[in-house]
Design a protein that fits this description.
The protein is of the alpha/beta class. It has 14 helices and 16 strands. Helix content is 37%, strand content 19%. A seven-stranded mixed sheet has the order 10-9-8-11-12-16-13, with helices on both faces. Strands 2-1-7-5-6 form a five-stranded antiparallel sheet. Strands 3-4 form a two-stranded antiparallel ribbon.
């Protein structure tokens, strides 16, 4: 996971989350073994990382993201960032090295005794290097790899990963890409760009990818605009990816709303609970509170339906398990002119069938299917090369533009020609009015001669 990918404080700058870690936040910790662990920070609690040690949660609360810590007696000490250094080429080779059992004199029992004595991991690694029989024969690259392997084994440190959209999406993709429907970070960025997501916009989304699409839209909206999601459940959907983004509650409540497929139908009449007591009076404060909450929920539902049916949304993003053409038939009437439509699917045939259907409809313009492809590179001094392993696919994306299907509508060039023609006719009429007629001149001459 690349901790430096993208702007470091983009979400913090636009106000969607805090710059520092707060109690109740869900954080991602990168361990020396490159394993990523997730935990929810509770105040006055103790966090255990297994063999890497434990620490008090209050040590992290109030600190910025992105720092690396060393665990010592359940307290945390900030480790300064390691600078990138050039590796010098030498004449050493690894061909004569024989890594047998006697190369490292230190036994596992002796190493455990050193760890129990409280000796720091760096000192243990230093002792191993000093007693390693073939360490001096290794190349500089091999020495660096040897140190990293030992640090991953003995170091008691971790790094708090900043909850940027790239880092969170990358974590979930590596954890279970099926839950994200094969949406990689590069796939998500293309979807957001094609949909033209920007602050202040109004967008529709159908997200069956654990909320990764919703998280991306909310981050780009920056707390302004509107996002309306269509889902299966009656209550607000649970998007697990959003928990790692640590959005502010007021940002989510002011921009995000949801409807299920039934309430998104104009012909459907919602079954609403009673908003008044049956006998006309409240029997207890609890009853009053429950009915008040019902009124608020009912009012919010009806207002969200009115906003959907009013239409004029700027874009639609779909990452769903359902057949996409039926979704577009249902929701495209609520889009404004020139609105972008983006549909993602792990399977190309689904989008190919959708593209063939859209080409026969006049209200959809320029439908195109693209395949997302990514190759990661290791970038180190003298060791820059593509990674040996990469993900098979990030899915496929269909992009189209919604236009108004109005037979009376004319292209912009026609309007320009019409305006130019009208202007020329007005100028010609003014010229005729200001110039005397030839017949009028002849009549005046005859009248003068007769006189």
């Amino acid at each position: 996971m690349d901790l430096g990918e993208g702007p470091s404080h983009q979400a913090a700058i636009n106000g969607t989350r805090d710059e520092i870690i707060q109690a109740g936040n869900t954080v991602l910790l990168k361990l020396p073994s490159s394993e990523i662990r997730t935990l929810k920070l509770e105040k006055d609690s103790t966090v255990s990382l297994g063999k890497f040690g434990s620490f008090y949660a209050n040590e992290l609360i109030g600190q910025p993201y992105g720092l690396t810590y060393d665990i010592t007696d359940k307290t945390l000490k900030v480790i300064p960032p390691r600078t990138m250094q050039e590796v010098e080429d030498t004449d050493a080779t690894n061909e004569l090295i024989n890594d047998g059992q006697f190369v490292q004199p230190l036994t596992s029992e002796e190493i455990e005794a050193l760890k129990k004595s409280g000796l720091h991991a760096s000192e243990i690694i230093k002792k191993q290097i000093e007693q390693h029989a073939n360490y001096s024969m290794k190349t500089e690259y091999s020495k660096e790899k040897y140190k990293k392997r030992k640090e991953a084994k003995y170091s008691k440190s971790f790094t708090v990963i900043e909850p940027t959209l790239f880092n969170v999406c990358d974590y979930w993709f590596n954890k279970d890409q099926n839950r994200l429907r094969d949406i990689r970070p590069d796939t998500l960025s293309q979807m957001l760009n094609l949909a033209n997501i920007k602050p202040g916009g109004r967008y529709l989304a159908v997200d069956d990818a654990s909320g990764v699409v919703v998280s991306g839209i909310l981050e780009r909206l920056g707390g302004t605009g509107q996002l309306l999601t269509i889902c299966d459940v009656d209550s607000p959907p649970a998007y697990p990816v959003m928990t790692h983004m640590n959005f502010k509650k007021e940002v989510v409540s002011s921009t995000l709303s949801s409807l299920n497929w039934a309430t998104a139908d104009e012909d459907y009449t919602p079954i609403l609970p009673p908003s008044e007591p049956t006998d006309g009076k409240f029997n207890s404060d609890g009853q009053r509170s429950r009915i008040t909450k019902r009124k608020v929920t009912t009012s919010a539902l009806m207002q969200t339906r009115e906003e959907l049916f009013a239409g004029e949304f700027d874009g639609l993003i779909v990452a769903s398990q359902y057949e996409p053409f039926s979704i577009l038939e249902k929701l495209s009437p609520y889009l404004t002119g020139s609105a972008s439509i983006v549909v993602h699917s792990p399977h190309v045939q689904i989008l190919a069938d959708l593209q063939s259907k859209l080409r026969d409809l006049p209200q959809f313009l320029g439908s195109a299917v693209t395949e997302v492809w990514l190759r990661r590179y290791q970038v180190l001094p003298g060791r820059t090369h593509p990674m040996m392993n990469t993900s098979g696919s990030g899915g496929y994306i269909l992009h189209a533009i919604k236009v108004y299907d109005d037979p009376a509508a004319n292209p912009v060039t026609a309007h320009r020609h019409k305006a130019k023609k009208a202007r020329l006719e007005d100028e010609s009429a003014e010229h005729i009015i200001s110039t005397p007629d030839a017949e009028d001149d002849s009549d005046r001459m005859n009248e003068t001669m007769n006189a």
